[in-house]
């Protein structure tokens, strides 16, 4: 799994000398197009204070399809990850609040790569291969998968969400390395997640 340099709103706020508050009530969700616009403008506002590698990763990149992720540990909070791409490869990720468009985090990839690492179709194939009950196979083959995340042993980075499939025998979670899990376990080391978590 990739480890990317990350700048959070808390780190940036500290540089600006302002306080960061979280936990505000969620309002209606942004559309994917609004998420792309918000991510671009939020990033442009912060580029002058970010390390130069962020500017290099952003230069010439186009906003890709935003990924909407629901927080499992904070049901009223969700976020978008907006990839910025050069062709099919992602060079920069910007995370924004799905209701307000507020910047949460940004991360550049030292080596551009496909994002997400595991697509919904691949996740579905992995779940289908991992279940044996006909009812589970039937549901997994046609059910919508949702991107979800919470800090856990399987992922401590909000940039690495899970595809969740609700099956009759219980949920299945597919991580961004292709692992299929029946449950998400508490992390041994606490951390990860966007500010306000």
Low-confidence stretches: 8-27
What order do the SSEs take from the amino end to the carboxyl end, as H and E? EHHHEEEEEHHEEEE
Shape: elongated
Largest sheet: 10 strands, mixed
> CA-to-CA gap between the ends?
22 Å
- Assess the beta-strand content as a share of residues: 25-35%
- Fraction in helix: 25-40%
The structure class reads alpha+beta
Alpha-carbon Rg, integer: 17 Å
User: How many structural domains?
Assistant: 2
Average of the residue pLDDT scores: 85
Number of helices: 5
Tally the beta strands.
10
Topology, pairings included?
Elements: E1 6-8, H1 9-16, H2 32-46, H3 52-58, E2 62-63, E3 67-71, E4 78-86, E5 89-97, E6 103-113, H4 120-130, H5 134-142, E7 146-149, E8 162-165, E9 172-174, E10 180-181
Parallel strand pairs: 3-7
Antiparallel strand pairs: 1-6, 2-4, 3-4, 4-5, 5-6, 7-8, 8-9, 9-10
Helix pairs in contact: 4-5
How would you describe this structure to a colleague?
It is a single chain. This protein is of the alpha+beta class. It folds into two domains: 95 residues, no CATH class; 62 residues, no CATH class. The chain contains five helices and ten strands. Strands 1, 2, 3, 4, 5, 6, 7, 8, 9 and 10 form a ten-stranded mixed β-sheet that branches. Strand 9 and strand 10 form a beta hairpin. It is elongated, with a radius of gyration of 17 Å. The protein starts with 5 loop residues before the first strand and ends in a 16-residue tail after the last strand. About 10% of the residues have low confidence.
């Amino acid at each position: 799994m990739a480890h990317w340099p990350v700048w959070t709103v808390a780190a940036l706020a500290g540089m600006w000398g302002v306080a960061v508050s979280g936990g505000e009530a969620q309002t209606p969700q942004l559309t994917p197009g609004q998420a792309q616009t918000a991510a671009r403008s939020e990033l442009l506002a912060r580029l002058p204070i970010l390390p130069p590698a962020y500017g290099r990763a952003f230069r010439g990149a186009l906003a890709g399809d935003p990924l909407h992720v629901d927080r499992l540990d904070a049901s009223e909070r969700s976020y978008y990850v907006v990839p910025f791409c050069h062709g099919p490869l992602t060079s920069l990720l910007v995370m924004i609040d799905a209701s307000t468009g507020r910047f949460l985090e940004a991360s550049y990839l030292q080596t551009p790569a496909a994002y997400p690492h595991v697509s919904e179709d691949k996740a579905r194939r992995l779940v289908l291969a991992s279940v044996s009950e006909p009812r589970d196979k039937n549901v997994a083959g046609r059910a919508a998968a949702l991107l979800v995340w919470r800090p856990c042993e399987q992922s401590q980075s909000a940039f690495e969400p899970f595809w969740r499939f609700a099956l009759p025998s219980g949920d299945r979670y597919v991580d961004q390395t292709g692992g299929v899990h029946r449950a998400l376990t508490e992390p041994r080391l606490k951390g990860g997640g966007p500010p306000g978590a």
